[in-house]
From TrEMBL:
Keyword match Ligase: no
Recorded topology in the membrane: Multi-pass membrane protein
Cofactor: Mn(2+); Mg(2+)
Cited InterPro entries: 2C_sensor_his_kinase (IPR050980), HAMP_dom (IPR003660), HATPase_C_sf (IPR036890), HATPase_dom (IPR003594), His_kinase_dom (IPR005467), HisK_dim/P_dom (IPR003661), HisK_dim/P_sf (IPR036097), Sig_transdc_His_kin-like_C (IPR004358)
Catalytic activity: ATP + protein L-histidine = ADP + protein N-phospho-L-histidine
Source organism of the structure: Pseudonocardia acidicola
Protein name: Signal transduction histidine-protein kinase/phosphatase MprB
Taxonomic lineage from the root: Bacteria, Bacillati, Actinomycetota, Actinomycetes, Pseudonocardiales
Length: 432
C-alpha cells in the first residue's frame, strides 16, 4: 500500500511538473533569443546614426569599435562596395537590404539581421549584425538546469510528504491486522485505535465492538454452562445415593463408576468454560496418554463384557506425554468408544491401540468390525453432522481434541470391515 501511494503521488507530481516546466523552458529559450536579437538591433541602429554624418574615417573607426566591443558581428556595406567592420560576405539578405528592405533570417550558425540606411548623398547602404547561436542560447542551459533542480526538489518533497502519509496509513492498517490476529488467538482484551485515519478508524471501531460482543457471548456461555452444571449435580448426587443403596456391590460399584464419569464430564465442562478466552501463553496442559487410555478401557470393558464384545487392547508402556489435558483426552476416548457401542450391534468386536508417535506424542487407533460409515460420509467429522440419528458430536469432540493437541484425526476403512479412527496427538509444546 505504501509503495502504491508513492507511485501514484510520484506519477501525478511528475505529470504536473512536466506540464509546467516544459512550456516554461521553451519560453526561457525564446526570451533569450529575443534578448540577443534586440541587443544586436540596438547596436546596429547606433551605427545607422553614424552613417548620416558622412565622415568616412570617423564612420570606419566607429564601426570597428562597435564590432570589437560587441558580442555580435557588425558589418557596414556601403553603396560603393566598401565594407567596414567584421568581415562578412554579401548574403542574399544583404542584397535585399541594399534594395531598401530591412529583415532578419536564421542562417547556419546563428541569426542574420540587416538594416537599410542612407548616407547624406542619398546613396543606400546596409548594416549587417550577425548573432551566433551561443548568444541566442546564452543562459538557457543554466536556466534549464535550475528548472530541472526545482522540479526534482518539488518531486522529492511531494514524495516525502506522501511517504509520511503512507506510513501513517500503513501503520494503522498493520495495527488493525495485529489486533485481529490477537483476537483470533483468544486475546479478547485486544483493541484497535478508533482514532486511526479516515475509514480505518471506522473499521477499528467496528472491530472493537465485535471483540466486546464476543467477550460478552463467551461470558454468557460460561455462565450458562456453570448454571447447567450446577443443576446437573443435584440429580447426580441422588443417583450416587441410589447406587450406594443397591444390595449388589457389583451393581453399586458399576453404577457409581458411571456417576463418577458423568461427574468428571460435568467438572471438565466447567473447567473448559472457565479457561475459554484466557490469555495465551499460560500453563501448558500435559497428560500421560498411556495411563489415561488404560483407565478408560478399564471403565468400558465392563460394558463390553455385558454386550459380549470381543476387545483387543494394545497400549504401549508409558509414560506417553501428549499436549492434551487428562479430562479432554478422557472425553476423546469416551467419544470414540461410545460411538462403537452406539452404532454397532451387540457382539461386535473392537480394538484399541496406543503407540508412540515419531517425534513425540502418541497415536490412538480405535477400530471396530461394524458396518462402518456410508460411502462419502466424510461430513461426519463436522460438528452436529451424523448419519445415524445421533447428535453428531462424538467424532467432532475427538477431532477437536486432536487439533488441540497439535495433531489430526482421520477415518480409514478397517482391514476386514467396519471403521478405523486414527487420532494423532502431538507432544507437549506443539499445541496451537
Amino acid at each position: 500500500m505504501r509503495r502504491r501511494v508513492l507511485v501514484l503521488v510520484g506519477a501525478t507530481t511528475s505529470l504536473v511538473l512536466i506540464a509546467f516546466l516544459v512550456p516554461l523552458a521553451l519560453l526561457l529559450r525564446t526570451v533569450a533569443a529575443d534578448r540577443a536579437v534586440q541587443g544586436a538591433t540596438v547596436e546596429a541602429q547606433a551605427v545607422s546614426s553614424l552613417v548620416a554624418t558622412g565622415d568616412r574615417a570617423a564612420l570606419a573607426l566607429s564601426v570597428a569599435q562597435v564590432d570589437a566591443t560587441s558580442a555580435y558581428d557588425v558589418t557596414l556595406f556601403l553603396a560603393d562596395g566598401t565594407r567596414l567592420g567584421a568581415a562578412a560576405e554579401r548574403s542574399p539578405l544583404v542584397e535585399l537590404g541594399a534594395r531598401g528592405t530591412s529583415a532578419s533570417a536564421v542562417v547556419p550558425g546563428g541569426r542574420e539581421i540587416v538594416f537599410a540606411v542612407r548616407d547624406p548623398s542619398g546613396t543606400g547602404g546596409v548594416i549587417r549584425a550577425f548573432v551566433p547561436d551561443a548568444e541566442l542560447t546564452r543562459g538557457v542551459t543554466r536556466a534549464w538546469l535550475l528548472l530541472a533542480a526545482l522540479g526534482i526538489g518539488l518531486l522529492l518533497v511531494s514524495l516525502a510528504v506522501a511517504d509520511r502519509m503512507a506510513r501513517s496509513l500503513v501503520r494503522s492498517t498493520i495495527d488493525l491486522a495485529a489486533v485481529s490476529h490477537r483476537l483470533a488467538r483468544g486475546e479478547l482484551d485486544a483493541r484497535a485505535d478508533p482514532q486511526a485515519t479516515g475509514e480505518l478508524g471506522v473499521v477499528a471501531g467496528a472491530l472493537n465492538t465485535l471483540a466486546a460482543r464476543i467477550s460478552e457471548l463467551l461470558r454468557e456461555e460460561r455462565e450458562t454452562v456453570a448454571d447447567l452444571a450446577h443443576r446437573v449435580r443435584t440429580p447426580l448426587t441422588a443417583l450416587r445415593l441410589d447406587a450406594e443403596s443397591l444390595s449388589d456391590p457389583r451393581d453399586a460399584a458399576r453404577i457409581g463408576a458411571g456417576v463418577d464419569g458423568v461427574q468428571r464430564a460435568v467438572t471438565s465442562a466447567i473447567d473448559q468454560a472457565r479457561r475459554r478466552g484466557a490469555e495465551p501463553g499460560g500453563e501448558r496442559v500435559v497428560s500421560d496418554a498411556a495411563a489415561t487410555v488404560s483407565d478408560r478401557i478399564a471403565f468400558w470393558s465392563v460394558l463390553a463384557e455385558d454386550t459380549e464384545r470381543e476387545t483387543a487392547v494394545d497400549i504401549a508402556p508409558g509414560p506417553l506425554p501428549v499436549a492434551l489435558g487428562r479430562a479432554d483426552l478422557e472425553a476423546c476416548v469416551d467419544a470414540l468408544l461410545g460411538n462403537v457401542f452406539a452404532h454397532t450391534p451387540d457382539g461386535t468386536a473392537f480394538a484399541v491401540r496406543l503407540t508412540p508417535r515419531e517425534g513425540g506424542g502418541a497415536t490412538l487407533t480405535v477400530a471396530d468390525a461394524g458396518p462402518g460409515l456410508p460411502a462419502g460420509a466424510t461430513a461426519a467429522l463436522r460438528r452436529g453432522v451424523s448419519g445415524a440419528g445421533s447428535t453428531g458430536l462424538g467424532l467432532d469432540i475427538a477431532r477437536r481434541s486432536a487439533e488441540q493437541a497439535g495433531g489430526t484425526l482421520r477415518l480409514e476403512p478397517a482391514e476386514r470391515a467396519g471403521l478405523r479412527v486414527v487420532v494423532e496427538l502431538g507432544p507437549p509444546g506443539t499445541a496451537p
